[in-house]
Amino acid sequence: MNKKVLFIMDPIENIDISKDTTFQLMHSAQKAGHEIYYLIPNTLSIKSLEPIGKAVKIYIKLDELPFFNDAEVKEHKLSSFDYVLMRKDPPVNNDYIYITYILDILKEKNVRVLNSSYALRNYNEKLLTLFFKDDIPDTILTKNRDDIALFKKKYKKIILKPLNLMGGRSIYFLDKQDKNLNVIFEDMTNMGKNYILAQEYIEDVKEGDKRVIVINGKVFREAVIRTSNKKDHRANIAAGGSIEKYYLKDSEFEVCQKISNFLKKEDIFFAGIDMIGHKITEINITSPTCIAEINRFHGINLANIFWDELE
Fold first, then answer.
1. Residue of 161, 210, 236, 279 marked active site
2. The whole model's pTM is what?
C-alpha cells in the first residue's frame, strides 16, 4: 500500500547522492510507490496544537542534476503523513531536542516517526553503549580533569569524545607522551562545564572500525570496515578514512544481536553499530550511514529492506 513519507533532513541540495543514506532511503521509497516529501528546513511549528511544516513533494531522478524535481512548497499538517523520517545530522542541540518534542505529538495521530522522537531525545549515541558494559571498552563519563588524568594514567592511551557530534568531529587520541591534556580538556568541556566521554584505546582499531546496520531488530552480517589514514587516528569516512567490504564473524554477530534486541524493544528501528574488534564504541541512531557503501560492496539493497520491514 502506497504511503506518504516526510523526510526531515539537512538541506537536500547539499547531499552527495553517491553515498548519502537519506538519498538511498528516498529513492527506495519512490521505487516502492510511496510519495516522498521534503521538509523545508526551519519551517516546523505547532499551530492549534497541530505540528505544521512547509514541505515539497519531490521526484528522484538518477540521470540528471539536480537529482530531483520539486513541486510547489505548501504548508502541511504532519498528521497527514504515514511516516516521518527524522534524518537531521547532529549536533543534538536545543533545536534538535525541540523538534523531537514537536514530533512526540504525532504518536497520538497514528503517524510513525523513525527513529522515534522519544528514543532520539533520551538515548545519546555515545552513552547508549553504557547499557552493554561487557561489550564496550572501559569508559568513563565526566567533566572532571582529575578523572581524565587518572584514566589516562591507567591506560596510557585513551580516546576523548564529545557527546553531541558525529563523523569523528572533536574526537581526540591521547597517548602516554601527549602533553596537551589540559588544553584539550579545557576546550572539550568548556572549562569543566560540559561532560565528555573517555574510552580506553583499543589496539584492534589498527585493523579498522566496523559499521554494522540494524533494521527492525535484524542485524546484517554484510558490513564495512573503515581504516584511518597515516595522518589521522579517526577511521570515519568524513574524517578521511578509507572503507572496505566486511562480513561479520559469528562472535561479532552475537554481540550485535544482543544490542539489536534492545534497540527493537526501545522502538529504535534503524541503527548503525560501530565495532572495534569485539567491542562496541558507538550506536548511531540519529542519522545512521554507510548503506550505499554496504550495498555496493555486497550487492544487496538495505534501503529496499528498510521499507519492506515497515510493511
1. 161
2. 0.93
